[in-house]
């Protein structure tokens, strides 16, 4: 990239809607705040790349004993809180006011804590409220398995949607100010969410079924539905979600971005890399430091600076500012991006 490109890029807020590194680092006993050579991301590389707000999702594999699942999730959340205490460069975003403190040159990384999969709730609303008190602001309703909220995509043929408990969770999330994430959710559950929610919801890391027939990908109808609700689709870097071949590259990622721009509009597409939740990143996007190459290629394809800014972060920031609660110390504010 030229010097002018770098200057322009670092003046724009960059937001990623999905990253799995916390769980991986906690399990491996390594430090998120130090540079690593065995992960796709860490705090130093995120900051050097210019990421300003990162959704860090915590995930525990399905376990029949939901107490074990909850213990795992709580250990990951505690690890994130410990990282915040130990490194002043990191702060956890919980409110609209916190979003307003994001600046491209602040030398800090904002983090939204997310939980991937509602297994840990164990059918109890108090667990959701407890996670909220700990700072969790996003819930991916299911992973690919069935849980007490709904069916994941592994169970799509069952045609099962939201359960009665799942409906309670979605309503409670809207009241609390938590981001509803439908990635991994079976189609019946997706449509149940779309009928139930009043505001925007997101698919934090999902690609286009029109380009790759993976069950995790969204149909054009689903993409338009997310847009109609004012939500955002985060395009991810998982090779099986990008192409039907055994390899994928940066151009394949851009194909999915451009497809969603055509179908859902430029106000409803963002970044959901899925770094450290995928085995092999696309060629050209091997780790988070490669994100400037993605922005550069979008420019080369002739897309406007404003469209790219929306993709880089403004769209997700708009949705987060709509959903997150206000600080109890301040009156409600309107945040525009």
Can you offer a commentary on this structure?
- The chain starts with a helix and ends in a 14-residue tail after the last helix.
- The chain has helices at residues 3-10, 21-28, 43-49, 66-86, 96-100, 125-133, 164-176, 187-196, 220-228, 239-242, 250-264, 291-300, 305-323, and strands at residues 14-19, 51-58, 90-92, 109-116, 136-140, 179-181, 202-203, 232-235, 269-271.
- The model is unreliable at 1-8 (pLDDT under 50).
- Strands 1, 2, 3, 4, 5 and 6 form a six-stranded parallel β-sheet that branches. Strands 7-8-9 form a three-stranded parallel β-sheet.
- Helices cover 41% and strands 12% of the residues.
Helices and strands, with pairings:
Blueprint: H1 3-10, E1 14-19, H2 21-28, H3 43-49, E2 51-58, H4 66-86, E3 90-92, H5 96-100, E4 109-116, H6 125-133, E5 136-140, H7 164-176, E6 179-181, H8 187-196, E7 202-203, H9 220-228, E8 232-235, H10 239-242, H11 250-264, E9 269-271, H12 291-300, H13 305-323
Parallel strand pairs: 1-2, 2-4, 3-4, 4-5, 5-6, 7-8, 8-9
Instruction: Write down the secondary-structure element order.
Output: HEHHEHEHEHEHEHEHEHHEHH
Distance between the termini: 26 Å
CATH class placement: Alpha Beta
CATH topology: TIM Barrel
Strand content: 5-15%
Unreliably modeled segments: 1-8
- Write down the oligomeric state: single chain
- CATH architecture label name: Alpha-Beta Barrel
- Count of separate structural domains: 1
């Amino acid at each position: 990239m030229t010097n002018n490109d770098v200057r322009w890029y670092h003046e724009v807020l960059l937001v990623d809607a999905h990253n799995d590194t916390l769980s991986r680092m906690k399990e491996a006993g390594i430090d998120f705040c130090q540079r690593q050579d065995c992960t796709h991301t860490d705090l130093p590389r995120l900051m050097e790349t210019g990421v300003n707000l990162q959704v860090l999702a915590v995930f525990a594999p399905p376990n029949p004993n939901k107490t074990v699942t909850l213990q795992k999730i709580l250990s990951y959340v505690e690890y994130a809180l410990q990282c915040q205490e130990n490194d002043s460069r990191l702060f956890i975003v919980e409110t609209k006011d916190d979003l307003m403190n994001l600046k491209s040159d602040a030398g800090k990384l904002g983090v939204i804590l997310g939980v991937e999969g509602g297994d840990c709730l164990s059918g109890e609303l108090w667990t959701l409220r407890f996670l909220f008190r700990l700072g969790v602001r996003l819930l991916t309703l299911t992973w690919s398995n069935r849980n007490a909220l709904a069916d994941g995509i592994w169970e799509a043929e069952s045609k099962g949607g939201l359960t009665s408990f799942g409906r309670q969770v979605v309503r409670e999330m809207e009241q609390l100010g938590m981001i509803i994430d439908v990635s991994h959710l079976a189609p019946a559950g997706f449509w149940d969410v779309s009928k139930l929610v009043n505001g925007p919801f997101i698919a934090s890391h999902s690609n286009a079924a029109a380009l790759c027939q993976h069950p995790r990908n969204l149909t054009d109808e689903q993409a338009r539905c997310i847009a109609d609700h004012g939500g955002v689709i985060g395009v991810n870097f998982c090779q099986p979600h990008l192409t039907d071949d055994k390899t994928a590259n940066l151009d394949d990622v851009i194909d999915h971005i451009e497809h969603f721009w055509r179908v859902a509009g430029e106000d409803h597409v963002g970044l959901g890399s899925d770094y450290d939740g995928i085995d092999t990143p696309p060629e050209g996007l091997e780790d988070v430091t490669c994100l400037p190459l993605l922005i550069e290629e979008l420019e080369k394809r002739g897309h406007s600076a404003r469209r790219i800014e929306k993709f880089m972060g403004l769209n997700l920031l708009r949705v987060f500012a709509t959903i997150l609660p206000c600080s109890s110390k301040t009156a409600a504010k309107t945040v525009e991006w």
